[in-house]
Amino acid sequence: MPELRTVVCVKIVPKSEEIRVDYSTKLLDRSNAHSEINPPDMNALEIALGVKDRYGGRVDIVSMGPPYFEPLLRIGLAMGCDHIYLLSDRAFGGADTLATTYTLAQGIQKMGGADLIICGEESADGATGQVPAGLAEWLDVSQLTLLTEINLDLTRRMGIGRRSLKGGYEILESPLPCVVSVKTASNEPRFMDFSRKLWAYEKDRVTVWNAVDLKADPQCIGLAGSPTTVSELAKVPVRERKRQKLAGSLDEVSGELVTIIQKAL
Amino acid sequence: MPQSLYGVKEESKAIWVYLEQDDGVLENVSLEMFAKGREMADQLKWKLVGLLVGQGVAPLAKTAISHGADEIRIADHPLLAQFTIDAYGKMVFEAVMDGKPSVFLIGATPNGRDLAGRLAVRFRTGLNADCTNLHMDKKGGLLVSEVSGFGGGVVAMIEMHAHRPQMATVRPGVFALNEPDGNRKGEIITLPVALQPEMIKTRILECVKSGVVDLTRVPVLVVGGRGVNGDFATLRNLAGLLGGDVGATRPPVDEGHIERERQIGQTGVICSPKVAICCGLSGAFHLLVGIEKADVVVSVNSDPEAPIFEFSDYYIVGDVNQYLPAIIAALQTRREVSHA
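The joint structure predicted for all components is written out below.
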């Protein structure tokens, strides 16, 4: 049996708490924000490395984005991943879900496919959560979403996952290859292994592919391949509140608040 | 751009809503979409259609009609008894290709997102995910979806010109429900189902459901932030006395003090209580989104500069750990008085 191969889709995002909104231009100001691995993707990396710990094989990272993603992606190598495939081309820019999932699927196919393709639940900046399912469709494989755990039955070539649902869970089984999305915050991502750090920053650890390398249809990538358009960006209208401060002794104020609450019910 | 399987010329002037059910109970979000869908359909004089998939689900068609549907298309089959992406994906795909609606709305639930993400690619169309509002552009029949972005207080309006169906997933709790009208009439169409067991690759081995938490419609929401120091028992006590329930900001959830399904805000639950009681939370934008629909917002925080005060109707500058017991005591005293 060939070596088990797991691919993790990773995105680099600006740290959400460092993003400001410029209400005069109606644009997001990311200039003072540092970038990091999308936090939900850290949970995906942990699940993937857990698979490697238990079943062996290799874990590769695939990411679509500009060259500055590269050093941040190497954190994944230091955590235990084996190689990075960075899909990088100006033509990939402005992609919506359809174009993003197409490009990632092209990259994974060029890598020779995988037994497990693991994604975070959603990206902190887009938060659409639609990439895993769309990717599974392009790759024409099954999907197991919102997993908190995964086990493999390698003789039957099955993935068995525990899917988190509101107020409960499901145990699902699906044939490999399969796309998995990991429930955000469902595990504690491991730290970098400092003995891997030097290795992780060696040049050969990263392969960069552009649109031509991927033999991507120019009509399917980036802005050109994205059916949706943003027609307007607006500040969220904030509802005006009364902003009345309640002052007085502890008992007075508490009593007053109870009156207000009871009146509103 | 890749072309969608059908385009504007072939579309039927209709808004379709996917009716998600679980064990014969409709998800609230499905009916919420009917309220909004009815309004948009009336505006354009279009048809509002519900797509109902499952086993033994026919009785739900009446409920959907009473909530505003003109027509319900039903796919009823033993292989649709449980949600599997293989069976539901194929069934919904075929139904939509048969009806070619201009607009197709799905609730942004776990299964709804699975289905929408997969089908949008199959149709080669765009998908506006987790929308917080929708409207139809009158002239062109364009769906304009409002998507909130990045915890930063901005919303993006997204539209799609050439690709069909115009797909969107809708965040649960953002639209109010219509009063059901039992006298409403609608057409019920049964769809042919061509499913074979071998088409279903995913198997559900076990399904465990405990008490489902639904905070979208509680009358009183008591929200705790970092300042409650993980003590949600007092908040529960207060919520219990008021017939409400408890929610939290992200830090207590991340620290494991309370379940993630109780996280309020942009990445959590959007609530519309009569009263939201904010305890020891600063008022980050992504939290505010979750309580914006509250009739009255009250807050307690020891930091006089806490941004939450700007978004409160009434506020107390003080330590929650001191004020909550006092508020509970005041509430109990009044009950005793009124019962005496």
